[in-house]
Amino acid sequence: MNQKTQVQIPLTTMCPSASGESGAIFTFGKSKFADNVPSRFWLKNDRPLRISCGDEHTALITENGKLFMFGSNNWGQLGLGTKATVNKPTCVKALKSEKVKLAACGRNHTIIYTTQGNVYAAGGNNEGQLGLGNSEERNYFELVDFFRKHGPIKMLAAGSNTSAALTDGGTLYVWGDNSEGQIGLGKESNALSPQELSVGKSVSWISCGYYHSALVTMDGALYTFGEKDSGKLGLHTNKLANHRVPQLVEGITGKVLQVACGGGHTVALTEDKLYTFGLGQFGQLGHGTFVFEAWLPRDVEYFRKGLVRHVECGENHTAVITDSGLLYTFGDGRHGKLGLGEENFTNQFKPTLCFRFLKHHVESVTCGGCHMLVLAKPRAKGSEEVTLEEEDVTEDIWEKPYSELMSDTTSSAILTTMNRSLSARVRRRERVGDIF
Asked: What is the mean pLDDT of residues 345-353?
């Protein structure tokens, strides 16, 4: 493998004629692509398929199986053969002989899975998070031999110095830092190579936070393990003593479908409710201004109607995609990573609709330490109407600098749909003109 071969991605930040069909990647916060300023880009002759954020770096997989990386690179986590920061998405050409299928970005490392059934890792490795049997960092993607005989893989996850891989059959493998029990291996300090983690049932979902992790079993049970501060494990006091191994989380109604772990909080999604617990001082729990911690699972009132499709956590913020392709964010608003406008860097303590995506269908979202990326497509003409709640409408959407950002993709049909959904008080503001 050529450790220093790289090529810059052919992209544009202006609106090309074909961009609407393939979808765009929107960046918010300190993404290195455009720090503190919302931006976006498209791929030429390819389509973005999957995105993953680490603490300060990002991975992008295309429909053709190409892997592009950008962001901080002080540990070689971009896998480009150097440690130089990369501001523009750059193709990892050393992997061109394989098609990349999955990627997960940790604090300072990256793991990927290819359609050929291989797992590769790059970046920091001080706790064995690359799974290579040693603690030497890599600035290029190196094959993790263990998975030549274990797979195929359907999901990857990465935390501060931890990694996890989930097979199609529901077997979970973990490796890296276990100083707080965050990979669930009991008293072991770390694991330099993948180890099986079993709860006696097949696993369907895995998420690694900064110093804690969570898994969901095929029958919808939620287990958490790792650092026990601030209620991020959602466990009763009598279970906290065993926090270094997976513990069943109680108090959630219905089967858990997904779980996401942040720096100090956890979000669990069931068929009709969204539960959050842990640290909430920045608003990342979505329970309102005065909820700074929740030690046990508590459903988010706004989403009691259900219709949530996907959840993601950054260090101190949360993103939610609904069935209709709308995006809500809440939590730490610094650097504009919530995507709520060029002039809105404030913390949000309740789920807040990202109005810039009203004309788009949000396909996926990923959250990092200080940034967020969104993959979205323009809504098709004649598509199902988007209905807004009156509480979704805030003064922020009428700010001119914010509204002009997406003016080149204005759709009168979506605007009409939106106006029909708003209260009479708000509809009167139409007189200010077409704001989107």
From this structure: 94
> Under a CB-based contact definition with an 8 Å cutoff, are residues 338 and 317 in contact?
yes
- Model pLDDT for residues 120-178, shown as the tens digit of each residue: 999 999 999 999 999 999 999 999 999 999 989 999 999 999 999 999 999 999 999 99
Provide the 10 A C-beta neighbour count for residue 11.
17
Position 319 pLDDT exceeds 90: yes
On whether the CB atoms of residues 254 and 220 are closer than 8 A, the answer is yes
Per-residue b/e over 371-389, b at no fewer than 16 CB within 10 Å? Answer: bbbbbbbbbeeeeeebebe
Question: DSSP for 205-236?
Answer: EEEE-SSEEEEEETTS-EEEEE--GGGTT---
Altogether, the residues listed in the chain come to a count of: 436
Using omega within 30 degrees of 0 as the cis cutoff, is the peptide bond preceding 246 cis? no
- pLDDT score of 290: 84
Residue 425: pLDDT above 60?
A: no
Give the pLDDT confidence score for residue 256 in this predicted structure: 98
Residue 83 structure tokens:
């440690």
Amino acid sitting at position 257 = L
pTM of the model: 0.86
For all residues of the chain together, what is the average pLDDT? 86
Pair 119, 176: CB distance under 8 Å: no
Q: Strand, helix or coil at 425? A: helix
- The span from the CA of 129 to the CA of 114, in Å, is 19
C-alpha–C-alpha distance, residues 108 and 74, integer Å: 8
CATH node for 7-392:
2.130.10.30
Distance (Å, whole) CA 299 – CA 304: 7
Considering just the CA atoms, what is the radius of gyration of the chain in Å? 21
- Concatenating the DSSP letter of every residue in 59-119 gives EEEETTS-EEEEE--TTSTT-BSS---EEEEEE-GGGTTS-EEEEEE-SSEEEEEETTS-E
The answer to whether the beta carbons of residues 58 and 370 sit under 8 Å apart is no
Question: Torsions phi, psi of 301, nearest 5?
Answer: -55, -40
Residue 349 has pLDDT above 70, yes or no: yes
